[in-house]
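We emphasize that the prediction below concerns an isolated chain of 102 residues; any contacts that depend on oligomerization or on bound cofactors are therefore not represented. The input was used exactly as deposited, without trimming of termini.
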Amino acid sequence: MTERREFPIVLSIHATDRLAQRGATLEEVSKTVRKGVWHPAKRGKLHTAKRYEFGELSPVNGRLYRYKTVDVVFVEEPERIFVVTVKVYYSNEGGPPDEGQL
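Result of the prediction step, given as a token string:
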């Protein structure tokens, strides 16, 4: 399982566009995929999510949030991980993020 996570992470054009629109970084996407727990998603895809401390204004609505959760939808291919889309959820509730927390 660890070996497959060392494959390159490649983003679709759609996922790349969503990074800026939704406020995620390539580093967060990579960390989320490599350290998160993978779950089944629709149509044979996978997804994983990780919560990060944020403390900034959301690019979506300009409001201040303490945390953001980066949710990555991807396909595990033979020699790469292909990211289909990236979702970002903002929140002020809850405690500090834990590793692998969804």
